[in-house]
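Colleagues,

For the teaching module next term, I've prepared a clean inverse folding example: a structure given as tokens, and then the sequence designed for it. I'd like students to try predicting residues themselves before seeing the answer, so please don't circulate the second half yet.
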């Protein structure tokens, strides 16, 4: 009797065994987290979670779950979500917690290769972080701030030369500008300059070079869909994975961006190996730092490429949101521009000369600018990934509202970013509103709690975002300069932009604005 004949003869016992195994696993999963409340069905099914992820509504659903079921709630058979800053700080600080498999199934870009964001092995992650952190911090990348200034000046010049609208009241001619695209060009050019030592040149050309931006957006949508359908494993599967993923030989799109990145790495390595060490030592970008700290060719390519992807979309999302909220709040816009004008008048920016960008140090001394940026990151967190961590095998006890709560081993716990940033107990009944003045809170204990949540916008502990300083520099400088020189208006107030949550990052398009010189 052949194997197939044997299987056919015993098909019903085999089927019954699979059903029994499924039921046993379901019961065990349900029992493990039975003490945690959650939406109906979350104890034995992932369906609600998958639907919300597919439709881009997961971030809002997570908030609803925590508001209804408490600061730690169940969203899947083996998954919890928390809105507690104290719990999330604990999870990201205590040894034993590690990244879940979500990281390498959802965050990998190259076939069977990890980078700092997708690496779930804690030891390997920590080793890599030590190697690349100096390049992000500015300690070795001495041209970090001046490189951002150069790209920002190109952004301002692009607006002046092509997109200023006619302010003559008799004509009122409008030159609409898609700010969502221009901001993405800015962040792409910044991070390519910092990461590869050369800018993509999107601002100078005013075009999406080789469709990098479009491909990044399409890639996010695709991975979001595959993740919701639980098919991300296909991208790492033997044979199939190689065919599905982008390749550096592609003529356009994601693969073309990968190719440009890989070629920049190869060229830099050839310079070093060719004996041009003197020239190499003068380079002060991230790539030079990565080389100095011992990354090999393949790891260099993976980390630089990850920098390009992660370093542009997140900052672009934050800057778009801050611009939108300030534009649509006249009181805030007036106060911000008054502070900017005072800073210029007092010589804090080096005068009113075009070509001089405010320093990061000077921007940090402007209280209302800081409040605007903090409030923008609060009401519209640019990163809303759940970032799940596996609970240690023996379980762990956390404290919620002064009471101990035991987290069983073998489950994962994630963060509900929106619920944490819109907590009415902390921020008041107007937590959903954009009000920068809340950051001048006189109650120092409350302000400290708010700052703790704000700092979690960039992660915590060993998993804190390496690009935090870069992002803060970009936001401070760009918001200051864009409102220093220009007045802004939304072209379509009914629908200012088109935005969709894809895997925790927002793909934003059609943010049409009218710009006039001040």
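(Answer key — instructors only)
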């Amino acid at each position: 009797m052949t194997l197939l004949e044997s299987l056919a003869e015993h098909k019903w016992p085999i089927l019954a065994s699979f059903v029994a195994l499924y039921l046993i696993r379901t019961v065990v999963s349900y029992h493990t987290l039975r003490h945690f409340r959650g939406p109906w069905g979350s104890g034995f099914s992932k369906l609600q979670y998958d639907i919300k992820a597919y439709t881009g509504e997961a971030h809002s659903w997570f908030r609803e779950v925590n508001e209804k079921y408490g600061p730690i709630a169940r969203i899947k058979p083996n998954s919890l979500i928390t809105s507690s800053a104290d719990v999330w700080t604990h999870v990201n600080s205590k040894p034993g917690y590690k990244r879940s498999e979500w990281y390498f199934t959802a965050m990998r870009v190259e076939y069977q290769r990890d980078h700092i964001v997708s690496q779930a092995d804690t030891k390997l992650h920590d080793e890599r972080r030590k190697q690349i952190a100096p390049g992000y911090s500015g300690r070795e990348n001495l041209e970090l701030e001046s490189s951002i200034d150069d790209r920002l000046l190109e952004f301002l010049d692009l607006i002046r030369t092509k997109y200023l609208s006619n302010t003559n009241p008799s004509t009122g001619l409008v030159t609409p500008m898609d700010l969502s695209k221009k901001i993405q060009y800015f962040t792409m050019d910044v991070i390519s300059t910092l990461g590869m030592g050369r800018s993509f040149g999107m601002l100078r050309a005013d075009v999406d070079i080789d469709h990098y931006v479009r491909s990044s957006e399409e890639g996010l949508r695709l991975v979001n869909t595959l993740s919701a359908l639980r098919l991300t494993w296909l991208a790492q599967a033997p044979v199939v994975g190689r065919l599905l993923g982008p390749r550096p030989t592609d003529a356009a799109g994601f693969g073309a961006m990968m190719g440009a990145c890989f070629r920049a790495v190869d060229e830099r390595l050839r310079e070093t190996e060719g004996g041009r060490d003197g020239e190499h030592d003068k380079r002060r970008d991230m790539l030079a730092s990565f080389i100095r700290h011992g990354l090999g060719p393949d790891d260099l390519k993976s980390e630089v490429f990850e920098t390009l992807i992660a370093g542009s979309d997140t900052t672009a999302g934050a800057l778009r949101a801050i611009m939108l909220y300030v534009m649509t709040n006249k009181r805030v816009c007036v106060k911000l521009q008054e502070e900017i004008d005072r800073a210029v008048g007092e010589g804090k920016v080096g005068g009113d000369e075009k070509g001089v960008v405010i320093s990061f140090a000077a921007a940090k001394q402007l209280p209302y600018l800081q409040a605007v940026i903090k409030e923008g990151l609060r009401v519209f967190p640019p990163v809303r990934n759940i970032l799940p961590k596996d609970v240690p095998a023996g379980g762990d006890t956390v404290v919620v509202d002064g009471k101990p709560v035991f987290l069983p081993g073998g489950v994962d716990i994630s963060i509900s970013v929106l619920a944490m940033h819109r907590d009415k107990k902390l921020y008041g009944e107007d937590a959903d509103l954009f009000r920068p003045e809340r950051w001048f809170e006189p109650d120092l204990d409350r302000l400290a709690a708010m700052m703790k949540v704000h700092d979690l916008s960039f992660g915590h502990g060993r998993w804190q975002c390496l690009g935090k300083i870069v992002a803060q520099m970009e936001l401070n400088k760009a918001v200051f300069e864009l409102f220093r020189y220009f007045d802004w208006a939304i072209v379509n107030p009914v629908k200012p932009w088109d935005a969709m949550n894809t895997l925790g990052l927002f793909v934003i398009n059609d943010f049409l604005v009218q710009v006039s010189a001040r």
